[in-house]
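re: ur question from yesterday

yeah so i grabbed the chain u mentioned. its 233 aa long if i counted rite. heres the sequnce exactly as i have it in my notes:
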Amino acid sequence: MADAPVLDPAPAYALWAASYPAHAHNPLMHAEERAMLALMPSRLDGQRVVDAGCGSGRYLRHALARGATALVGVDLSAPMLSRAAASLGDAPAAASIALTEGDLAALPLPDASADVLLCGLAVGHVADLDGVLGEFARVARKGAVLLVSDFHPVGSALGWQRDFRADGQRYAVRHTTHYYSHWHAACVRAGLAIDAVAEPMLDPADIPAGARFDPVALNVPVALVMRLRRFAS
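ran it thru and got these structure tokens back, copy pasting raw so excuse formatting
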């Protein structure tokens, strides 16, 4: 299959937003989500939760399900934020949810404003890993938990693209590969500690019958998932 035209994230998600669900909708996302939820605190009552790169609100919904009532979602795409607003329309009345447009490397949030920071499959949209993790550290309070995931570097090595279809056309979203060594060094510079790492693999049960996919994907990790902590001092 020929490579799809590669778009920068903003125009890509402007096209993709209309059909983008607020839940894991492919085998890779199911694998990534299981790993993220396993590392997420089981209860988030009383915690200020920030979802950086919130997209259609997938992890905001999981945070609500775990008791969070003070939540902020940030995304660079206004159409995706509209999808998030629609998906969160059934949130409990007691929940305070703010959705705001912004870049991962320039979050429009105050210092030390997050007890828990989530970022699912979005960091690869930004080339400057130091800039992103510096912002995450700035926004996280000391001792905060940060849960981040991205597509595993092995996927890039195998030529996989972050692709989607819109109006009958296949497109790919521009992606920067950040290796674990890059994460480790950038975390040290940002004052973040890597507390746990998961490299989930696909579950064959998530693959629809007759689906076309690279069979190698069953034998390699498909996501890099990390729990980080903001240094207490």
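noticed a couple things. The chain is about 30% helix and 25% strand. also The radius of gyration is 17 Å.
anyway ttyl
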